[in-house]
Amino acid sequence: MRRERKVFGAREKAEAVLSVWSGRRGPGAASRALGISQTLLGNWERRALEGMMRGLGVEVGEVPNPEGTLGKRLERLLAQGEREALGPAAGASESGVTSTGG
């Protein structure tokens, strides 16, 4: 028997992403609550961050992070976005977590 695939609306996706970003839930708990993989949740996070950056007119590398106020998860997503924007060679020697601004 084939399992039906649930379609999530923008509100459900946003609530899941914000619950992780705010620290109310970890990524594992948020994905389990919705019955999705952590990979899918990570894709939602990346798309949400890209949409915010585009909507705010912020270029890659311009996001300030005074005194590390962004959570580590958001810092990783921003760093990943910077590496992807700069090309495959940009992230070859980085540790994966960077802090911009400050």
Radius of gyration: 15 Å
Main beta-sheet strand count, sense and barrel state: none
What is the percent of helical residues?
A: 40-55%
Number of domains: 2
Count of helical regions:
4
How many strand segments?
Answer: 0
**What percentage of amino acids are in beta strands?**
under 5%
Our measurement of the CA-to-CA distance between the termini, rounded to an integer number of angstroms, reads 54 Å
**Are there runs of 5+ residues with pLDDT below 50, and where?**
90-102
Secondary structure class reads: mainly alpha
- Overall shape: it is elongated
Q: From N to C, what is the helix and strand string?
A: HHHH
- Quick check: average pLDDT? 77
Fold and architecture overview:
The C terminus is likely disordered. Helix content is 53%, strand content 0%. The protein is mostly helical and 102 residues long.
Write the layout of secondary structure elements.
Elements: H1 10-21, H2 27-34, H3 38-56, H4 72-86
Helix pairs in contact: 1-2, 1-3, 2-3, 3-4
What keywords describe this structure?
mainly alpha; disordered C terminus; 102 residues
Task: Characterize this entry briefly.
This protein is an all-alpha fold and 102 residues long. The chain has helices at 10-21, 27-34, 38-56, 72-86.
